[in-house]
Amino acid sequence: MRGVDGLELSAKRAEYLKYIFNQGDVVRTTDISTHFSVAPSTVTKTLEDLARSGFVEHSPYHGVRISRRGREYARFLIRRHRLLALMLSRHGLSPDAACREARSFEWYVNKSVVDSICASLGHPVMSVCGPIEHDTCCCCPADR
Ligand SMILES: [Zn+2]
Ligand SMILES: [Zn+2]
């Protein structure tokens, strides 16, 4: 998957991207600054970085919407989190703890490792904190 392999956003930018992805439409700078409790000027700067890298597109009225590339990456972030949380729960952590602990290290796990974990868990469709997508999963076609 172009643009996903070997590419890593900082945790903060990734959180913004996931938030924008989950809103599903134009997101205003003020929505983000309220949600994350940060100054609008800081949000604007981060959004400019995300736009420059092609993850979001500016839209009128001081907002952004997610780009195709951003959507793919956000889906990867969610899939990675849920696979790692599921893996931890299989090792005895409670669902809450698994979800929380996955957040503390998921940023360091690259896509090929995520794909390996997906395969070793048997391409699961449900995690402790939500469904795991497989339509964008490039580890699965060989198994189908
Ligand atoms: Zn979770
Ligand atoms: Zn898979």
From TrEMBL:
<dbReference type="InterPro" id="IPR001367">
    <property type="entry name" value="Fe_dep_repressor"/>
</dbReference>
<feature type="domain" description="HTH dtxR-type">
    <location>
        <begin position="9"/>
        <end position="67"/>
    </location>
</feature>
<dbReference type="InterPro" id="IPR036390">
    <property type="entry name" value="WH_DNA-bd_sf"/>
</dbReference>
<dbReference type="InterPro" id="IPR036388">
    <property type="entry name" value="WH-like_DNA-bd_sf"/>
</dbReference>
<dbReference type="GO" id="GO:0046914">
    <property type="term" value="F:transition metal ion binding"/>
</dbReference>
<dbReference type="GO" id="GO:0046983">
    <property type="term" value="F:protein dimerization activity"/>
</dbReference>
<dbReference type="InterPro" id="IPR050536">
    <property type="entry name" value="DtxR_MntR_Metal-Reg"/>
</dbReference>
<keyword id="KW-0805">Transcription regulation</keyword>
<keyword id="KW-0804">Transcription</keyword>
<dbReference type="InterPro" id="IPR022687">
    <property type="entry name" value="HTH_DTXR"/>
</dbReference>
<dbReference type="Pfam" id="PF02742">
    <property type="entry name" value="Fe_dep_repr_C"/>
</dbReference>
<dbReference type="GO" id="GO:0003677">
    <property type="term" value="F:DNA binding"/>
</dbReference>
<comment type="similarity">
    <text>Belongs to the DtxR/MntR family.</text>
</comment>
<dbReference type="InterPro" id="IPR022689">
    <property type="entry name" value="Iron_dep_repressor"/>
</dbReference>
<keyword id="KW-0238">DNA-binding</keyword>
<protein>
    <submittedName>
        <fullName>Putative zinc-dependent repressor zntr, dtxr superfamily</fullName>
    </submittedName>
</protein>
<dbReference type="InterPro" id="IPR036421">
    <property type="entry name" value="Fe_dep_repressor_sf"/>
</dbReference>
<dbReference type="Pfam" id="PF01325">
    <property type="entry name" value="Fe_dep_repress"/>
</dbReference>
<dbReference type="GO" id="GO:0003700">
    <property type="term" value="F:DNA-binding transcription factor activity"/>
</dbReference>
